[in-house]
Design brief:
77% of the residues lie in helices and 3% in strands. The protein is an all-alpha fold. It has one domain (4-142).
């Protein structure tokens, strides 16, 4: 039985192939949503069992769904054939969604990951083992060994 990390890695590989296929077939909406999933799934790969991984996975899934929904809203409001497109804050609606919503909100997954990194990804024991293992190499490099 594959571990959770192995299943996520397999899912990411399959999703990458699906994304490639959707892009080649010209399915813009499905391609956009699969790109968001490709960006979010590696963040799931890093979660460990310390802390509350279910809570973090829910937050990340919510961020992914929000970004996917906003991308689909761009397709809904895109009106390239309109002579005078409706404007939101000076931009056509689809562009305004990207500039005012997607662009600033796309930082959310990284912020969430960074805030919960010490608890859910790298605990104190792992950090001290890492420092101990690599401090020997750094000391040897400083002394030219």
């Amino acid at each position: 039985m594959p571990s959770t990390r192995d299943r996520i890695a397999i899912a990411l590989a399959l999703l990458s192939l699906l994304t490639l296929a959707l892009g080649l077939l010209g399915a813009e909406r499905a391609f956009s949503v699969s790109v968001i999933a490709n960006l979010m799934l590696p963040l799931f790969y890093g979660w460990r069992r310390q802390g509350d991984p279910l809570r973090m996975r829910r937050l990340m899934a919510a961020c992914g769904l929000l970004l996917a929904g906003l991308l689909l809203a761009i397709f809904h409001y895109d009106q390239p054939e309109a002579a005078r497109p409706a404007l939101w804050l000076g931009y056509p609606r689809a562009t305004a969604i990207f500039v005012y919503l997607i662009w600033p909100l796309s930082i959310l997954p990284a912020v969430i990951y960074g805030l919960f990194f010490p608890k859910n990804v790298l605990d104190d024991d792992d950090l001290s083992a890492f420092m101990q293992r690599h401090s020997k190499h750094r000391a040897a490099d400083r002394h030219g060994a």
